[in-house]
Amino acid sequence: MTDIPGNLSIRSIGHNRFGPMQYLVCLKGILVREGLRYLHQRERFISSLVRPLLWLFIFAAGFRQVLGVSIIPPYQTYVLYEVYITPGLCGMILLFSGMQSSLSMVYDREMGNMRTLLVSPFPRWFLLMSKLLAGVAVSIVQVYAFLFIAWFWGVKAPASGYILTLPALFIAGMMLGALGMLLSSMIKQLENFAGIMNFVIFPMYFASSALYPLWRVQEASPLLYKICLLNPFTYAVELVRFAFYGKIEWISLAVVCGFTLVFIAGAIIAYDPSRGLVIKKQEGGNN
Amino acid sequence: MGPDVELKTIHDKPATDASVPALELASVSYSYGRRQALDNISFSIAPGRFAVLLGLNGAGKTTLFSLISHLFATRNGRIHVFGNDIDRRSGEALRRLGIVFQARTLDLDLTIHQNLAYHASLHGIGSRETDRRIHELMQSIDMSDRLHEKARNLSGGQIRRVEIIRALLHQPSLLLLDEATVGLDIKSRATILADIRRLVAEKGISVLWATHLIDEVSHADQIIVLNQGKLVANGTMHDVIKDTGADTMNEAFSRLTGIISLNAGGRL
Known about the structure:
The complex is a heterodimer. Chain A is mainly α. Chain A starts with a strand and ends with a helix. In chain A, 72% of the residues lie in helices and 2% in strands. Chain A has helices at residues 20-40, 42-63, 81-111, 113-118, 124-152, 159-186, 193-206, 214-220, 222-230, 232-244, 250-270, 277-283, and strands at residues 3-4, 8-9, 14-16. Chain A has one domain (43-279). Chain A is built from twelve helices and three strands. By secondary structure, chain B is α/β, with parallel strands linked by helices. Chain B has a single domain, classed as P-loop containing nucleotide triphosphate hydrolases (Rossmann fold, 3-Layer(aba) Sandwich). Helices cover 34% and strands 24% of the residues of chain B. A six-stranded mixed β-sheet of chain B has the order 7-8-9-4-10-11, with helices on both faces. The longest helix of chain B has 18 residues, at 186-203.
């Protein structure tokens, strides 16, 4: 480091590279900030729990007699509808949380906070991945809080299931979070987020195996069945469902991993300044 | 090497080369669709200089800042920060930049310390070094007692001062401030200007201060005037006044931006 007149430190004219420790510091900072924001928004935590619990306590109880669930893998005996729906509700938490993260990115962009992230000297892909990881970490905490309450409701998995569910939740959470990130790059204003609810979250949730087994769907509507098969959320739910019983559903794993990579690549391209997709929309009218 | 230790430096140019400009723009143009926001802008700022980018609203100041801070990619022309191309070596260039945006960017739900620590982590600065720098900088603006208050409890002027401190936290060599005093009362504006001038004198960093307020150009080493996306003046205040044949900076700015002709037309 050399000083020039005026006390200016010119580390500047050199080529600096961040080491692994700096990358870890940056990742930790983003994780801590996301965690703090989550803690500051208690209503967000409560609503993230209330939504699936309402489905479990009320919807599932009401539909228990209406919807019969035959013995299909991974189940080895007849199960109550509450048991069937629980992995779908875990997926629901991940889905809503992923979209909530994208909502917060749109909010950050509108409020200007996003710029502090984007002008960091770390590579853009690393910043976006860190943000994604932070969002997934928060959503996994929500899922385990839900599973804890569901345990008292009689929805219990083998002990190994609770452990194996963690990587399944992580991969599924990454896929849905990356989708949310990609969508956030396409949303011009916060108000437009309602469209995401109607055109992404609800169709993804209802046209999947979260609420009813696919054989039931096929009986009712072959077309809807095909749509469910094309829906990546179906595979996220099945991945979690099998993991809940200590099993790996390889097709679901492959599909979820594939979509995760596609969505992450899409989000990185969308937030690339050379594409300018995000900022251009916001700044279009500025000086 | 721990995170608290300074980053290693691999020099690709002589480190003692003080002739490298802090900021250099060469033929930079940018357009939003058909609307030309910047048209062939070229200028440079020497290290340790306080430069003011002066222009009316809509002149292209924010677009220029977005290009310099790599929020937009430079499609036409080149931008170098201490010799680093902002598009090709964005990481190196951004490390040297401290940026205060026009919009407020503090997270209002977090404390001042949490906001500053977050920024430090985005520059890879470890927690011990972060705490040391935060205390030192907050002390320099007499706000250390507010460190653990939520940002939403601060006034507009205080938020701005914290944002300036935040921009200095990673010890940049060039500070960009985009309309940093907009919406503030006279006292807050004076405090912020005094803070910046003192920090610049103490740390010797270069500053590019964008404003549309003519009274903020006094004491500037260099004045760059933008009008409708074009660079219409670049030099010391004396040069700008002389080149326009005006008697005061106010008059020079009016001539450069066409306000006088509007007056002559009777519309103002």
